[in-house]
Structure formats: structure tokens, C-alpha cells
């Protein structure tokens, strides 16, 4: 897999992981918020509808209480049957009746009761005696209508509190099922009503009325929880469908109103949001793919260029250099690659030149081999001269050794200076870092000072506004003082007219007048102080605005200094790196200088020995003549090898 494809693949994987994390958190958070919102909405609906049903029951109970109040002071003989005549328009009321303590029974339906009918044995009568207050019976099947109903009962007592009988009203529950059909969430879900023992009182499906909720497998495990908690919410599964249930108690009867909605309906907006997230993620991945592919192509283009030139170098073509642009690591690699190519090109050129020189030299060696015998006679003379030259050479070599020693000492001093410069640069870098931290701290302090100055500005501005309000109040006080003074003057005039009888009132009027004058004088002084405060406040506001501008300028200057120090820090780092590089080069120079010094010392020793060897050279001249022939043969072989080397070098294009 190519580098471009790898960069694109890794970019897609990284962005994909980020999108998965972000979308997952967003989806979970949205689901949590939606669940909370739906639960709240369902709870509000259940509470509202339970209160509505409770109000309806209370309205029916009010009829019983009103009848109790009407006939409470009426004798049993005077209680008319017309009191129990039903309102025919109210289809939910089955019957209205009263059972007396002596077994007598009156009801508004008008039908005859069985001869053995005794109201005192009925459940509603016993419940009323037990509770001794207005109440509701548990639901039951009415023997007359054969319909599901409840009885609202109220004990009837005389003025001494003695029980006279029980008033009852039968309420049919059949219409409750129709009423709760409209209790849902946006037309979705269903509601039903349970009594305190889990019997269904009202349900959109009339076949389930009067049956136990626990008989349904879906509700077997949660019925106890509903009856115990009375109010709450839960999630359950019905016919492989997940649903959310909210239930609330109806206060009058302790019945429980249950609202159930499928989760698919509740989370429909969430599913839409999920699809939107998936679409956004897909679009983002496509955009990121093209962006990453383009960037990867841009990044790999210089590398591909270097690869092409490397292949040319491998084929022996050094005629071109790679195109390099920018200042990044790839550009650095390209420059190093071009330098390597230039070095190789130079080496090959030098080898070619050397080969040409060797070719010429070998030819000359071959020619000179034939002339060597003639020159042998002159060697003796030359050897004498060589002995003298060897002596001078030894002296020159000694001078060179001394000069190399001086160079070595200079290189050592340069190395020491570079080490000190490196340490000084490190110290400067640390100082710059301290300066950067100080500048950052100063910027933070300036920002805090700017915030504090703004707070002072707001406070003084508020003080200025309040001073204006106080000035207006002082004007009102001054007006009141003037009016009071005028009233005091009028009172004094009236007291003077009253004569002796108005003398006391005159004294009071005089005191009021003095008080008014004092109030007026104080108001003027307060007004003067307020004017001064307002002037000072205005001046303070102006100064604080100027201070805010200065604080802004200082913060800008500090940030500029921080930027400059960071640039200095980067320059020092580069300087330190350069010093370290120079130190390495100087160390290498020092090593080579030491090597040269040793070599020169060896040369001096050799020069000393040359003088002695010159005498032996004469004896070797004879052997040289024999060796000349061998040299001629060797020169011929060398010429052949050089030709082969030239053929190999011609493969390189420079």
C-alpha cells in the first residue's frame, strides 16, 4: 500500500472514530433528554386527567352532600320521593336513594324493590357506617342495571348527630372507557383505570373491563409495583413491543389512571435524529476522504519526486537534481539528497580525471622505462644532491611540525571558546524562558487589572446615576420645605386672627416654619454636595476610561514582547545547535591536526634517515635497472585496467 493511501486510510479511521464518539454521546444525551421530556409530559397528562376525573367524581358527590343538607332537618315522614328524582340528562347516574336505620328505602328510579330488600345489609350502607363520612364504594355489578358502577354514600344525621340513614347515588362507569380513549400522546398510546386491587375499571377495549390487570402476562410482574407506588413510571414489554407507562392516583377513590405509549412513538424524533447523524457522518467522511486524499497527494508528491531521482541515481544518471520547495522535513531530506548527488557527481568526476591522469602516467611510465637505463648513470650525481636536500628537508619538516603544534593549540582555544559560548547561550535561553513566563504573568495581571477597572467603572457609573436620583429627591424635599413654610405662614396668620385663643397654634406654626427653613437649608447643602459628587464622579469615569485604554495598550505591548521573546528563544536554540555542530567540526579538525603533527614528526625522522639511506641507494641502482623491465610490464597492465575503469565510468551521466 502506497504512502498516499496509508495517510488517507489513517485519516479516515481517525475521523471515523471521532465521529462515532461524538455521535454516540449526542445520541445518548438526546435520548436521555427526550425520555425525561416524554416522562414529564406523560406525568402531566396523567395528573391532569386524574384531577379531571376526580373533579367529575367530586361533582357527583356534591349532589349527595347537597341532598344530605336539604333533608338533614326534615323528618322521615316529610322526606318526599321527589328529592330522589333523577336528572334524566345525566346518563351516568343510575339511581339516587336513601336507606333508613329502620330498613325503609326510598329511591328515585321508581321501580319496586323485593319484599326482603334491606338497605342495611348492602355494602354501601355498611361502608357509610364504617367510614362515617362521604365516600365511594369499590366498583361492583349493579343488580338492577347489570352494569359496572360505584356508589357515592353519605351518612344522614339529625341535629344531635344521631344516624338517621345513608344517602347513596349509583354512578355508571361505562362512559369512563369512552372518556379515556382521548387520553394519549399526540393520538398515540392508550389509557385505562385500575381500582385499588388491580381490577380494570375502564379500558378502550370493553372486553377487559372488570378483569384483573395481572391476568395479562405483560402486566403480571408490574401490577404489584403499580398498586404499591400509586404514582410513578416504568418501562415494560407487551407483545414484543417496548412501552413506557406513567400512572397517577385519583385522590377521591384511590383509583389509578394508567397512560401507556409504545417506545417507537416516543423515540420517533430520536430515530430521525439518528438518521441525521448518520447522514452527517457519511457526508463528513466523504469530505474528509477527498480532503485527506488531496493533502496526502500534496505531502507525497515531493517524496515521489525524490524516489524518481533516486532511481535515476541508481541507474547512474547524476545530470539532474530533485526540485525542492518549502522548509519542512521533506524539503530538508530533498536538500540532503541533492547534496549527496552533488558529492557523488564530484567524486565520479574526480575519479574520471584521475583515470585520465593514470592513463597518461602509465604511458609515460612505459616510455620512461626504456630511457631509465640512460638515466642510471646520472643517478649517482643525483644521489649526492639528494643527501644535501634531505638535510634541508629535515629542517623544513621541523618548522612545519612547530607550525602544526601552534595550529593545534589554536584549535584547542577555539574549542574552549565554543564550549563557553554554548554555556552562555544556554544561560541566555533560560533567561529568555524566565522573561516569557514573566511576560505571561504580567499579561494575566493586566487582564485582572482591566477587569477590576471595568468593575470600578460600572460602580462609579451606578453611583453617578444614584446621585442624580438623590438630587431629584432633594429637589422634592426643597419643594416640600417651601410649601411647609408657606403653610406655616398661613397658620401664623390664622392664629393671629384668632387672637389669644390662637396663641398656642401660632407658636407651633413658628416652629414648623423654622423646621421648614432648616429643611430647605439642609436640602441646599445636600444639593451642593451632590453636585460636587457628580462632578467628581464624572472626572473619575473619564480617568477610568483613560486607565482602561492604557491597560489595553499595556496588554498589547506585553503580548508583542512575549512574541519577540519567543522568536529570540527560537533563534537561540538554532544558535546553540550551530555552535554544537561547529564544536563537532572543530573536534574533528583537532583530531586531524594531531594526526598531521604525528605524520610530520614521522616525516622528520624519515628525512633524517634519508641521508643515511642515500648511500645505500647507489647500491640499489643496479637493482633498479633490473626492475625497470618489470615496471614496464606493470605499466602495460595498469593501462589495460585503466581502460576498463574508464568504460565503467562512462556508464555514469554527469
Describe this structure in words.
- The structure is a single chain.
- This protein is of the alpha+beta class.
- Among the domains are: 72-172, Beta-Lactamase (2-Layer Sandwich); 330-434 and 572-649, Helix Hairpins (Orthogonal Bundle); 459-565, Orthogonal Bundle (Helix Hairpins), CATH 1.10.287.950.
- 70% of the residues lie in helices and 10% in strands.
- It contains 8 helices and 11 strands.
- Strands 1, 2, 3, 4, 5 and 6 form a 6-stranded antiparallel sheet that branches. It has a 5-stranded antiparallel sheet with strand order 8-7-11-10-9.
- A hairpin with a 4-residue loop joins strand 1 and strand 2 (105-107).
- The chain is elongated, with a radius of gyration of 58 Å.
- The two termini are 34 Å apart.
- The model has no long low-confidence stretch (mean pLDDT 75).
- It comes from Pectinatus brassicae.
- InterPro entries: dCache_1, HAMP_dom, MCPsignal_dom, Sensor-like_sf.
- This is Methyl-accepting chemotaxis protein.
- Residues 368-625 form the Methyl-accepting transducer domain.
- Belongs to the methyl-accepting chemotaxis (MCP) protein family.
Amino acid at each position: 500500500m502506497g504512502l498516499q493511501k496509508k495517510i488517507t486510510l489513517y485519516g479516515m479511521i481517525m475521523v471515523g472514530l471521532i465521529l462515532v464518539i461524538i455521535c454516540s454521546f449526542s445520541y445518548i444525551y438526546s435520548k436521555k433528554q427526550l425520555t425525561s421530556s416524554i416522562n414529564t409530559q406523560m406525568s402531566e397528562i396523567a395528573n391532569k386527567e386524574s384531577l379531571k376525573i376526580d373533579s367529575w367524581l367530586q361533582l357527583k358527590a356534591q349532589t349527595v352532600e347537597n341532598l344530605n343538607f336539604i333533608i338533614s332537618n326534615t323528618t322521615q315522614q316529610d322526606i318526599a320521593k321527589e328529592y330522589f328524582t333523577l336528572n334524566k340528562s345525566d346518563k351516568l347516574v343510575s339511581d339516587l336513594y336513601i336507606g333508613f336505620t329502620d330498613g325503609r328505602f326510598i329511591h328515585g328510579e321508581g321501580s319496586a324493590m323485593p319484599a326482603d330488600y334491606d338497605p342495611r345489609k348492602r355494602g354501601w350502607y355498611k361502608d357509610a357506617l364504617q367510614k362515617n363520612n362521604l365516600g365511594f364504594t369499590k366498583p361492583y355489578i349493579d343488580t338492577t342495571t347489570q352494569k359496572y358502577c360505584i356508589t357515592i354514600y353519605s351518612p344522614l344525621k339529625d341535629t344531635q348527630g344521631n344516624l338517621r340513614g345513608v344517602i347513596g347515588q349509583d354512578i355508571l362507569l361505562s362512559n369512563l372507557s369512552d372518556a379515556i380513549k382521548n387520553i394519549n400522546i399526540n393520538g398515540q398510546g392508550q389509557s385505562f383505570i385500575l381500582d385499588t386491587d388491580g381490577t380494570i375499571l375502564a379500558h378502550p377495549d370493553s372486553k377487559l373491563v372488570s378483569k384483573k390487570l395481572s391476568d395479562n402476562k405483560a402486566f403480571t410482574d408490574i401490577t404489584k409495583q403499580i398498586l404499591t407506588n400509586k404514582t410513578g413510571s416504568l418501562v415494560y414489554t407487551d407483545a414484543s413491543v417496548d412501552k413506557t407507562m406513567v400512572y397517577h392516583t385519583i385522590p377521591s377513590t384511590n383509583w389509578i389512571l394508567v397512560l401507556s405509549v409504545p417506545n417507537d412513538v416516543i423515540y420517533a424524533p430520536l430515530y430521525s435524529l439518528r438518521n441525521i447523524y448518520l447522514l452527517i457522518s457519511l457526508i463528513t467522511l466523504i469530505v474528509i476522504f477527498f480532503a485527506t486524499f488531496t493533502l496526502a497527494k500534496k505531502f507525497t508528491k515531493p517524496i515521489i519526486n525524490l524516489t524518481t531521482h533516486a532511481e535515476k541515481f541508481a541507474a547512474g544518471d547524476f545530470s539532474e537534481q530533485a526540485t525542492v520547495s518549502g522548509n519542512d522535513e521533506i524539503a530538508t531530506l530533498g536538500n540532503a539528497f541533492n547534496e549527496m548527488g552533488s558529492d557523488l557527481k564530484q567524486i565520479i568526476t574526480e575519479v574520471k580525471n584521475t583515470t585520465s591522469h593514470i592513463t597518461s602516467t602509465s604511458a609515460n611510465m612505459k616510455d620512461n622505462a626504456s630511457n631509465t637505463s640512460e638515466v642510471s648513470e646520472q643517478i649517482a650525481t643525483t644521489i649526492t644532491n639528494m643527501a644535501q636536500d634531505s638535510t634541508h628537508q629535515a629542517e623544513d619538516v621541523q618548522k612545519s611540525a612547530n607550525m602544526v603544534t601552534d595550529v593545534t593549540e589554536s584549535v584547542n582555544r577555539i574549542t574552549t571558546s565554543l564550549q563557553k559560548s554554548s554555556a552562555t547561550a544556554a544561560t541566555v535561553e533560560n533567561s529568555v524562558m524566565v522573561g516569557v513566563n514573566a511576560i505571561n504573568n504580567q499579561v494575566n495581571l493586566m487582564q485582572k487589572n482591566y477587569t477590576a477597572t471595568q468593575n470600578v467603572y460600572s460602580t462609579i457609573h451606578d453611583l453617578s446615576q444614584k446621585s442624580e436620583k438623590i438630587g431629584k429627591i432633594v429637589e422634592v424635599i426643597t419643594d416640600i420645605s417651601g410649601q411647609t413654610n408657606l403653610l406655616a405662614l398661613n397658620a401664623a396668620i390664622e392664629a393671629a386672627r384668632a387672637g389669644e385663643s390662637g396663641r398656642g397654634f401660632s407658636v407651633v406654626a413658628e416652629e414648623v416654619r423654622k423646621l421648614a427653613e432648616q429643611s430647605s437649608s439642609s436640602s441646599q447643602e445636600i444639593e451642593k454636595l451632590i453636585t460636587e459628587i457628580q462632578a467628581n464622579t464624572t472626572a473619575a469615569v473619564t480617568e477610568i476610561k483613560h486607565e482602561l485604554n492604557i491597560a489595553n495598550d499595556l496588554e498589547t505591548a506585553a503580548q508583542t514582547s512575549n512574541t519577540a521573546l519567543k522568536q529570540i528563544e527560537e533563534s537561540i536554540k538554532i544558535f546553540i545547535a550551530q555552535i554544537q555542530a561547529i564544536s563537532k567540526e572543530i573536534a574533528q579538525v583537532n583530531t586531524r591536526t594531531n594526526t598531521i603533527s604525528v605524520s610530520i614528526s614521522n616525516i622528520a625522522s624519515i628525512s633524517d634517515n634519508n641521508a643515511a639511506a642515500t648511500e645505500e641507494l647507489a647500491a640499489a641502482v643496479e637493482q633498479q635497472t633490473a626492475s625497470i623491465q618489470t615496471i614496464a610490464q606493470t605499466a602495460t597492465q595498469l593501462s589495460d585496467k585503466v581502460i576498463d575503469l574508464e568504460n565503467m565510468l562512462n556508464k555514469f551521466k554527469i
